[in-house]
Design brief:
Oligomer: single chain
Largest sheet: 6 strands, mixed
Helix content: 40-55%
Strand order of the largest sheet: 8-7-9-10-11-12
Distance between the termini: 76 Å
Number of strands: 12
Radius of gyration: 39 Å
Shape: elongated
Length: 707
């Protein structure tokens, strides 16, 4: 009856206050040995006082916000915990299903299994089997029928069949006393069972309070973590759950009930029945109260084998094949298997603790044994090597890492690929030192970093590096605000030093990555498009199109113009090579903001050419005239709030696109329908690239083609 009190209080109080919406609380097997020992040592009344004090300590845990530490349990351990509980349930309840009784340990249940099978009670098996059959068939029925919980239907049907068939030999539930008569406020006895005053046992009593609080807290939090894995509803607020569990223990102790914890079996049954809100847990307590006080005769009609059949199905459902496959695929099957065995043959808390310890040990092993693979390519005698390193790169890896690096032949080309989730300073410095020494032998080192964890993040003595698109690989160059590498100015001025230092940095960081890619293009190249753009140094065609070596045939001139004067063959020569020799069928005209050429064109207008620039810009007079005549592309640009020079730049792109479509060199491609002409505008202030057509900047919803 003390257990029923704890079940009612756990359902109503913890269900109302707790932070786990679908967790159901009540008396738990995990505290059985502890509570039995407390009753033996201090008596029942003092045990209730200990339960009250333990609940107060749990509330303190919740207020201190330490409960979220439960999330530190590895998911594979939680999955194995659920599976272990499922196996334990099946081993216990299969004996009840066959008309016997469950043993006190999993090993005893296994040993008694052959005898139970040979001496089973057929009528018990029929009743329990009927429940199992209904539960297995219920999910296949129409949704409207499944609105009624299958577990409820199965128990009702099995009970009705047992009654209709007059199976008097079926073992049924027994309630030995009236629920309300069992409720009573605890009192402090003058002495404990040994005869000593309880005051003299304060140390032992305090230890009992701490033991109950810790075990109840850990078991409740582990159950909450496990239940979160079984549903897609709101996640647990662990601190609030701790306060709810503590409140339930205070009330249960005051009413004469057992300690309360979150119970994985009740909770998983709740989820399997289709629970959606915390009212499911509250009603769990309400129904127990009603059946234990008002409907005891009805409860005593239920066959134990029917409940055993229900629990066996729940137990099997806790062992999920998807979790086993995941553990195998991620290399955590050993953790999964060890945790299950320990939960089944020891207990929940010891099993989880051992599983967590094994998971931590395997993690440390993986850190020390992070995969390092070094192999030559191009033949055993080749001086081209590839080293692949995966995982967590910490100082624990240094002995193996430095050994592999030291085995690289002097003067060889080494491609070092880092697929790391973490790199500490020790590894960064070791790689940096080896790289310097290897390049001193005439070798080349290309470092490819495929994850956000970078060497330069750990190695803080070096400046921030800049990265080009993944298609090119990481290449760093000196920034004007840093001095890396140290400059030896000698007789050079700053400009010379900057360029030559950049070349040196390229040989250190870029050449090794770029070399094998360019080696494939030595004899031929197949660019995708001609990219006609301005000579402005701020435009980076490869970067803004995420292109790699050999992808673009780049043509630059002031103002990205296509001359129409037959005497000027500068652009025509490039188009001839690209379209007639290389087979390119696409051409892109890219203008940009803050273009000095467009600004000069607006300023000088139609003045007679007096300089090389103004003479060249005579090729842009059509663009200026179209701009002043309110070309459609200008209207779009005005809408975007751009300056006059930027508006002219967009109109100029549209005009150059028209010229390209009329270019005689492109006539064959145009006639075959293969010619594609695109326009682009690069806004330097926002680093945004816009598509441009004859109507100006293309809005995202209007984009009809992909550059």
């Amino acid at each position: 009856m003390a257990g029923l009190i704890a079940a009612v209080v756990g359902g109503i109080v913890a269900g109302s206050i707790g932070g786990s919406v679908l967790q159901v609380s009540g008396p738990a097997a995990g505290l059985t040995v502890v509570v039995a020992g407390l009753i033996d040592d201090f008596g029942w009344q003092m045990t209730c006082v200990i339960t009250i004090c333990a609940g107060g300590l749990q509330i303190l845990f919740g207020v201190m916000k330490v409960a979220r530490a439960a999330l530190g349990v590895a998911p594979v351990v939680v999955h194995a915990m659920l599976a272990g509980i499922g196996v334990t349930i099946v081993l216990q309840q299969i004996h009840v299903l066959m008309g016997g009784s469950s043993r006190s340990s999993a090993w005893e249940n296994i040993e008694a299994l052959p005898s139970g099978v040979l001496h089973h009670e057929l009528h018990e098996v029929i009743v329990g089997g009927l429940v199992i059959a209904i539960l297995l068939l219920w999910p296949k029925l129409p949704p409207k029928v499944r609105l009624i919980p299958g577990a409820l239907v199965a128990i009702v049907v099995a009970t009705a069949v047992a009654e209709a068939a007059e199976l008097d030999g079926v073992d049924r539930i027994e309630l030995s006393a009236n629920f309300f008569h069992a409720i009573g406020l605890p009192s402090l006895p003058p002495t404990v069972p040994g005869g000593e005053p309880w005051v003299d046992e304060m140390g032992e009593i305090a230890l009992g309070v701490l033991t109950v609080a810790l075990i109840a807290s850990v078991e409740s939090l582990l159950s909450a973590v496990g239940i979160d894995k079984l549903h897609k509803g709101p996640r647990t607020n662990f601190d609030r759950e701790m306060i709810g569990q503590g409140s339930a223990n205070v009330v249960s102790g005051l009413l004469g009930g057992l300690p309360v914890t979150g119970v994985i079996v009740r909770s998983s049954t709740n989820v399997a029945a289709g629970a959606r809100s915390r009212m499911s847990a509250v009603l769990h307590g309400v129904w127990i109260l009603l059946f234990a006080s008002l409907f005891t005769e009805l409860v005593e009609l239920i066959p134990k084998s029917a409940l055993a059949g229900l629990l066996i199905v729940i137990g099997f459902q806790l062992v999920k094949l998807a979790h086993i496959k995941l553990a195998w695929r991620t290399g955590n099957f050993a953790v999964y298997a060890i945790t299950i065995v320990c939960v089944v043959f020891l207990n929940l808390l010891e099993g989880v603790a051992i599983g967590l310890g094994v998971a931590i040990l395997i993690l440390l092993t993986r850190v020390v044994r992070a995969p390092i693979e070094a192999k030559p390519y191009g033949g055993e005698e080749s001086k081209h090597w590839r080293i692949d390193i995966d995982g967590t790169l910490s100082f624990l890896l240094l002995p193996r890492l430095t050994k592999v690096l030291s085995e690289m032949p002097p003067g060889s080309y080494v491609r070092l690929t880092l697929n790391a989730d973490y790199i500490d300073e020790a590894v960064s410095e070791a790689i940096s030192d080896w790289r310097t020494a290897h390049e001193a032998t005439g070798g080349v080192v290309a470092i490819v970093e495929t994850t956000p964890a970078k060497l330069h993040h750990a190695h803080t003595t070096r400046p921030r590096r800049h990265y080009l698109p993944r298609s090119i690989g990481p290449i760093s160059w000196p920034s004007r605000d840093v001095s890396w590498p140290p400059r030896d100015s000698g007789d050079r001025d700053d400009a010379d030093a900057s360029i030559l230092d950049g070349v040196n940095e390229y040989h250190r960081s870029g050449r090794g990555e770029l070399y094998p890619r360019l080696a494939e293009l030595t004899d031929s190249t197949r660019p995708h498009a001609v990219f006609l753009t301005c000579s402005d140094a701020r435009i980076m065609p490869d970067v803004i199109t995420a292109s790699g070596p050999g992808d673009l045939y780049v043509v630059r001139n002031v103002g990205n113009l296509v001359p129409t004067d037959p005497a000027d063959q500068s652009v025509d020569a490039a188009l001839d090579v690209a379209f007639n020799q290389l087979g390119v069928t696409s051409v892109v005209v890219c203008g940009h903001s803050s273009c000095a050429a467009m600004t000069a064109l607006l300023r000088d207008g139609t003045d007679q050419a007096t300089t090389a620039t103004s003479h060249w810009l005579e090729h842009a007079q059509d663009s200026l005239a179209a701009y002043r005549d309110h070309h459609p592309a200008r209207g779009s640009a005005e809408f975007d709030g751009l300056s006059e020079a930027d508006q002219l730049s967009i109109v100029n792109v549209a005009i150059q696109m028209e010229r390209l479509t009329r270019n005689p060199i492109l006539a064959p491609a145009k006639a075959s329908g293969a010619l594609k002409v695109f326009g682009m505008f690069f806004d330097i202030s926002t680093a945004h690239v816009y598509e441009v057509n004859q109507n100006g900047i293309v809005r995202p919803a209007e984009t009809a083609s992909t550059l």
